[in-house]
UniProtKB/TrEMBL annotation:
Keywords: Cell membrane, Membrane, Transmembrane, Transmembrane helix, Transport. This is Peptide/nickel transport system permease protein. The keyword Transmembrane applies. The chain crosses the membrane at residues 29-50, 121-143, 155-177, 219-238, 273-292, 323-345. Pfam families: BPD_transp_1, BPD_transp_1_N. It is found in: Cell membrane. Its main location: membrane. Residues 115-342 form the ABC transmembrane type-1 domain.
Amino acid sequence: MTSVAETSPRKSSYGGAARRWSAIVWRELSTVAITMFGLLLITFLIARVVPIDPVLAIVGDNARPDVYDAARAELGLDKPLWQQFAIYIGKVFTGDLGRSVLTSNTVVDDIKRVFPATLELATLGTIFGCAIGIPLGVLAAVYQGRWPDQIARVIGLFGYSIPIFWIGLMALLLFYAKLGWVAGPGRVGVAFQDFVTPITGIVVIDAALEGEWEAFWDAWSHLILPSSVLALFSLAYVSRMARSFMITELQQQYVIAARVKGMSEFRVIWRHALRNAFVPLITVIALSYAHLLEGSVLTETIFAWPGLGRYITNSLLNADMNAVLGGTLVIGAVFIGVNLLSDILGRLVDPRTR
């Protein structure tokens, strides 16, 4: 039979851990709530500051004054600013982002249609960037000042300095127009338009789930080039940060002790130093992924990729402010969600936080 003296410390430790995790959850939720409120306020003010009249975008420039006033009242623009903001928050939290003037669909339906394309592009770009960038950064740190380090620096400088639209155009010219290794602009070829039933919204996954392998390889051929262009930015960022973190870790006492004990260099670098460097690297990867999700506007425009960035650009050019603000709000929410997820993963991976 367990004594009271044995059970009390265990209960106390469980209670202390529960209180710590409750405080962490409460702090994270409070941060998310404040950030979301700020995001809603900024998007609302943007809609009121930009020199675009949403009423004219609906009724046209030649509408009669009574028609204009009726449309303005229907949109709630005749109410005080604070009341408009309260209505805006209420609509957002009920999933109502308004209706797009350009497509005549609700903005939510439009975003559901275009966001998977951006998710597909950014996810593959991040995978490519991390698969190359992390080993490149590790080798640059191990061979600091030698030729692997110089190669990593040149690649990083190239990824940061060269405009992404120029890289996209040159990639299309070389790999599509000259060599014919990949398919051209667009998400799928003309023969495969609406060929695959959307399940996840990601064409390569949907085609594989349905066993439509011709459509799968066609979609993959269209996807590989724009995702590789995006991966160059991710690779430059991740490799530079991986190099910095690894240089710090390789100077730690536990690395010196492991080498003195005769542990193999491969194990010291790839199992011990990289494992500790991976904790701050999670945040770097998450931020890189979020940047690719929101920063693929030029890539989507060059490759005629029907994603969120291109949707926002077309909406802005056509004064469709509901669509622009809805897309901006989604991008901001993605940033908040990715940052929160990286914090959680960092706490789970790093035992010191537990």
